[in-house]
Every structure is written in C-alpha cells, then in structure tokens.
Design brief:
single chain; about 70 residues; alpha/beta; Rossmann fold; 3-stranded parallel sheet
C-alpha cells in the first residue's frame, strides 16, 4: 500500500510516517499543497491523507483540483 501525506506540521508528519512504517505501508510526504498536488497527479496512491488547514489553499480546493 502507498499513501500520500500532505501535512505542513513537521513533527506530526514524522509521527504519522513512523506509524505507517510500522505497518509496512509506504508513505510519500509533502509539506505543502503544491508539492502534494504534483505528487498526486504524477503517481498512484491507494490513499491521500490531507491536512485540513494548509496555508494558501484549503483541503476542499485541493480535493476539487485533484478530481
């Protein structure tokens, strides 16, 4: 399984990545919406975990762009 995590809080991101690593789940991390959007458009992910409040663009706008 491969997950994309878009989260701007570095400490929280590291904890989430460690949690999934213990479950043998690969996680690609993006610390901002632009990098996350690029990765989502150019790779296949089984799931995307998206921060609800990112600077510059909220989660709903990102979801609409990805659809």
């Amino acid at each position: 399984m491969k997950i994309l995590l878009i989260e701007d809080n570095l400490i929280l991101s590291r904890n989430i990545v460690r949690f999934f690593a213990l479950q043998d789940i690969q996680v690609d991390l993006s610390l901002d919406w632009k990098d996350g959007f690029y990765k989502a458009k150019n790779n296949f992910y089984d799931a995307i975990i998206l921060d609800i409040s990112l600077p510059e663009m909220d989660w709903l706008e990102i979801c609409k762009k990805l659809r």
